[in-house]
Amino acid sequence: MSPPSRLSIATVVVMTVALGLVFFYAPLEAEQGFLQKIFYVHVPLAIIALCGFVAGGIMAIAHLRTRDPRWDMRSYVTIHMSLIFAVGTLITGSIWAKGSWGHWWVWSEPTLVSFLIVFLLYATYQPLRFAIEDPERQARYASVFAVTAGAFVPLNFIAVRLSTAYLHPRVLGSTSNLPSQMALTFLVSLLGLALLFTTLCKYELAAKHARAQLRALRRAAAEREGLTGGENSGAHARRPRSAAPTQYPATAMTAGSPGRPTV
Amino acid sequence: MSTPVPQTRPAPAAQQQADTAAPPAQTGTLSTVAAILRKELLIELRTLESVPGMSLFALTTFVVFHFALNRNNVDGDLAAGILWVTLLFAAMLGINRLFVADADQGGFDGFLLAPVDRSAMLLAKALALLAYLVVLEVVAVPAFALLLLGPPIGPALPGLVGVLALGDLGVAAIGTLVAAMAVRTRARDLLGPLLALPLLVPIVIGGVRASEPLLVLGHTGTPGARWLLLLGLYDLVFGLIAYALFDFLLED
């Protein structure tokens, strides 16, 4: 591959600046002290994961409209990465909850509970996908799931928020009531993590693309080996894919015929 | 259970006429829906595969709850929770079986060969699931009142019927979509509930919160408007989503 792209460099730079701001620039919060710094990781992770889920749904719509498998691949990678970020959100949220309330899990915190439900839903995305063999149908069904789940995300947040008494960590209001130093740090962290998300998605897409190409090349090589008459054991193992279908029914019939006349 | 059948009886005649007539005369969506719905209900009436199982499951679950909680009677939020969890899991049985016959015995292929609107399948299956749920509730709610519920069911019934109806619409829409998605995968019995349960969490939230004031001792409450609104919003959004996406599940 080419040397690190501008996107990767930007990600590293902004992430470094964000960490520097978090630890050396942003003031300590009066009530929670050092613990509050996890806010600069937890909230951006949550925002990006949610946006990623919804974006995955939008890409799935694009796939269903255009039938371009690349959109399905983008949707898959975005959802996959969002799922990883959602795990990060749940872990950091849990740590924060332990620090502020003394419990690893707090049901009265609607954002965290909604996240768990969304996470549980999206955790079924890959089992659904890989339970379907046909690649075209796999892409189609995965897209239908992605659109449904993408619409579920906001509705679920409304439902869970309604169901809990309004209780929020004290600093986690809208950014407008944050001190400006905190707001700046938060926005830089958000940007850094968003860049990280994009970079990781890009790399995963590149890896998937490379793997698909490799598989196609291997298949082509195996086929060529089979055509030139290389009947050694290595080629033989792969033969049933390309050459055997003409043989297979015949052997099946001869194997079945001795039983037939007796019936 | 038998009421929908006479209502849809003229449908197959219309279907046959349309089939024997010239090919361009596409069958109307409504008559297709009626024909599929009639087929579903007839199969269910003859095989009794889903609804008796669902009802029996609900009754057994009430017994399990009695022992699990060690309570002779329940009221308020606990009663609402037990009722909804039981109905949801019983519904899951029906959802899992909804498309099995079509996938295994070529029903999908036959349907795809017919010159009809594919959304008709969604509508018919959702209506069939809705009918199963209604029958399930006709059995399970009186049983719940008899076995576990502390306060008398009578005064709560009108409100409860409304809340259950709103919940059923959402369960039918999402259940049909998920069932169609899961049935043609390798692990369909596993994937159906795995997909459906998180998607139905808002229904549980809305349904439990709305029926909770109806089931308290002294039953003074009415369902909170926002919970009914939540259920209605869910029904609308996922009804439209299921309608928009169902066709994509039936392409091959």
Roughly how many Å is the radius of gyration of chain A?
Answer: 26 Å
Strand percentage of chain A = under 5%
* Helix amount of chain B: over 70%
Report the strand count of chain A: 0
Most extensive contact: A-B, 31 and 34 residues
- What is the typical, i.e. mean, pLDDT of chain A? 80
Taking pLDDT < 50 over at least 5 consecutive residues as the criterion, the unreliable ranges of chain B are: 1-24
Derived from helix and strand composition plus strand pairing, the structural class of chain A reads mainly alpha
Shape, principal axes of CA atoms of chain A? globular
- Show unreliable segments of chain A: 167-175, 233-263
Give the ordered list of helices and strands of chain B. Answer: HHHHHHHHHHHH
**Oligomeric nature of the chains:** heterodimer
> How many domain regions of chain B?
1
| Largest β-sheet summary of chain B | none
Q: Tally of extended strands of chain B? A: 0
Overall body shape of chain B: globular
C-alpha-based Rg of chain B, rounded: 19 Å
The ordered string of helix (H) and strand (E) elements of chain A is HHHHHHHHH
Helix and strand content put the structural class of chain B at mainly alpha
Number of domains of chain A: 2
Count of alpha/pi helices of chain A:
9
